[in-house]
Design brief:
Residues 295-322, 430-489 form a coiled coil. Residues 59-102 have a biased composition (Acidic residues). Belongs to the outer membrane factor (OMF) (TC 1.B.17) family. Residues 56-119, 162-198 are annotated as: Disordered. Keywords: Cell outer membrane, Coiled coil, Membrane, Transmembrane, Transmembrane beta strand, Transport. The protein is of the alpha+beta class. It has a domain at 2-72. The protein has helices at residues 2-20, 38-53, 57-61, 129-139, 141-161, 220-286, 292-327, 351-361, 363-383, 425-491, 497-532; strands at 123-127, 167-180, 199-216, 333-337, 389-400, 407-417. The strands form two sheets. Strands 2-3-5-6 form a four-stranded antiparallel β-sheet, with no helix packed on it. The chain has a two-stranded parallel ribbon with strand order 1-4. The two termini are 65 Å apart. Residues 1-81 and 536-544 have low confidence and may be disordered.
């Protein structure tokens, strides 16, 4: 029985190929129920096998499956066996939202949701990369904190500059006092009209103005102003870093959403391929041309692909929530990428020029130089405590008891303060500031080396990923053709279900590699732009 089944399978596969070359006809397909002359049937099989074995493997693989006769296969639609059907559909661009303001969170930063509907996601909103950057600048907490730090440093500078002006103060005091009255040596006679009151009350009003000005502070005042200026510049540079890092984080998170969206599409295509392979195996089994083992293999492959699809959809939701967290959108908003992944712009600079550009633009280097200045000025501030302090003052005071005419007093003078010995405290603080200078210089050197490493890594990754894109595109084409041929061979009876499953796996891997290469290239380009530039609201090169 097994030999007869094998003979039937070989004859059908042979006649599929011969029918394409107009050598055999559909009537040669002999089923076990319609065979009346086994001798003639076996003779036809031997002749067909000799003819198909004389064909080259390339000719067998190139057989146009759609032209063969399949009258004896119980198929309602022969397109189910078409190996040229491409189940993969690229991610189509979505219509982005027009206004991003509705995506902003509540204006109350202390709001804490208490109801389920306040944290449930109502809808998935597609946005472009430019809209994502706009949302991040408006809502990201790190960026908002950096802006507040700049405002705070600016007010600290105003405070330091205020020391250059004199200070004017007003002092006013109202005082009422009581004291015993009369002559204590004379007997008290309450009936005497000249008898004084038992107590005597006095009311005084003193009002004074005082003007002070520090003429000489031993270098402390100008040093404090320069420190405040350096601190303001440091915070401004920190804001540039935060904004550029925010741009990179948003771009990277946006690319991650693109990757997971495309990975879901790839996995869905793999599931569709597995479903088609299962249908092929079931149809061939029903026709008596396949085995139960082939069907089981196809079912296992389908189950595996469905699990991969579940994991891919989970990663898709996670990446969308991570993007929303970076953007700082509302509790009920989930964002996704409106555009599918595509290769971004090219990098036109050499590695050496990129390194030099990074040295010119990176704010971290200038920030360490400002820290060095702060250390130098801190030495001056510390030593100023051991130097003389000279100040001028003028005061004017008016006193009135509401009975007599008021009296006024005018005072003018100068004051000298000089700490002759403080136990070495000032010099100790100066030495601490001197060490701060050395630390800033060491950090400058360390940061310079780190910047070069970042540029080199991003540059090399960009080159390799660009090559990987070209290789992956070719691999996808080859894998698609390999799957088509594997299905053709299996449907013709000269291949196995394992070949189809392996071809499906290779195609899924090739599509995933192409997606990874494109995303990694875009990430490397964004990382290289971040490594060489700290210029907010600008790019070194425009991307399409």
């Amino acid at each position: 029985m097994l030999s007869f089944r094998y003979v039937c399978g070989v004859s059908v596969g042979t006649l599929f190929a011969l029918g394409l070359g107009e050598i055999a006809i559909a009537e040669n397909l002999i089923s076990p129920t319609s065979a009346t002359d086994n001798t003639s049937f076996l003779k036809n099989i031997e002749n067909s096998r000799e003819l198909i074995l004389s064909q080259s493997p390339e000719a067998l693989e190139d057989l146009p499956l759609e032209e063969r006769e399949t009258d004896d296969i119980p198929l309602e639609d022969t397109e189910d066996l078409d190996p040229d059907v491409d189940t993969f559909e690229e991610v189509e661009p979505l219509e982005p939202v027009e206004e991003t303001e509705p995506l902003d969170p509540s204006s109350n930063p202390l709001q804490l949701p208490t109801q389920e509907e306040e944290v449930s996601v109502d809808d998935v909103v597609p946005i472009t990369l430019e809209q994502a950057l706009e949302l991040a600048r408006r809502n990201n907490q790190d960026f908002q904190e950096a802006r507040l730090n700049v405002r705070q440093a600016r007010e600290q500078l105003n405070e330091a500059q205020a020391a250059q002006l004199p200070s004017l103060s007003l002092d006013s005091q109202l005082q009422r006092s009581s004291s015993p009255g009369g002559n204590n040596n004379q007997p008290d006679d309450p009936l005497d009209p000249d008898f004084p009151d038992a107590t005597e009350a006095t009311t005084l009003l003193r009002t004074g103005l005082q003007l002070n000005y520090n003429v000489y502070t031993g270098g402390q005042r100008p040093a404090q102003i320069r420190v405040a200026e350096s601190q303001l510049r440091t915070q401004q540079l920190a804001l540039e870093q935060v904004e550029e890092q925010l741009r990179f984080n948003v771009t990277d998170a946006y690319y991650a959403v693109q990757q997971t969206d495309s990975q879901v599409a790839i996995t869905e295509a793999s599931v569709a391929d597995a479903e088609q392979s299962l249908r092929d195996a079931q149809l061939l089994e029903e026709a008596g041309l396949g085995t139960r083992f082939d069907v089981l293999q196809a079912e296992v492959q389908l189950a595996n692909e469905e699990q991969e699809l579940t994991r891919a959809r989970s990663q898709q939701r996670i990446s969308r929530r991570e993007l929303g967290q970076v953007l700082g959108v509302g509790q009920q908003v989930e964002v996704t990428a409106a555009t599918p992944p595509e290769q971004a712009g090219d990098w036109d600079l050499s590695l050496e020029d990129s390194i030099l550009l990074a040295y010119q633009n990176r704010a971290e280097l200038e920030q360490h130089l400002e820290e060095r200045k702060i250390g130098e000025e801190s030495q001056t501030i510390a030593l100023s405590d051991t130097r003389p302090q000279i100040s001028l003052f003028t005061s004017y005071e008016v006193t009135s008891d509401f009975d007599d005419s008021p009296t006024d007093t005018l005072q003018m003078g100068a004051q000298l303060n000089w700490t002759l010995y403080d136990g070495g405290s000032a010099r100790a603080r100066a030495r601490q500031a001197e060490e701060d200078v050395a630390i800033a210089e060491n950090r400058f050197q360390q940061t310079r080396n780190e910047i070069r490493t970042e540029v080199e890594q991003a540059f090399f990754n960009l080159e390799s990923n660009e090559q990987n894109i070209q290789t992956a595109e070719l691999a996808v084409e080859q894998a698609e053709e390999s799957l088509r041929l594997a299905r053709l061979r299996f449907q013709a009876g000269v291949g196995t279900q394992t070949d189809v499953i392996n071809a499906q796996s290779e195609l899924s891997r090739a599509r995933g590699n192409l997606l990874t290469a494109i995303i990694d290239y875009n990430r490397s380009l964004a990382g290289l732009e971040r490594a060489v530039s700290n210029l907010p609201d600008s790019r070194v090169f425009d991307t399409p």
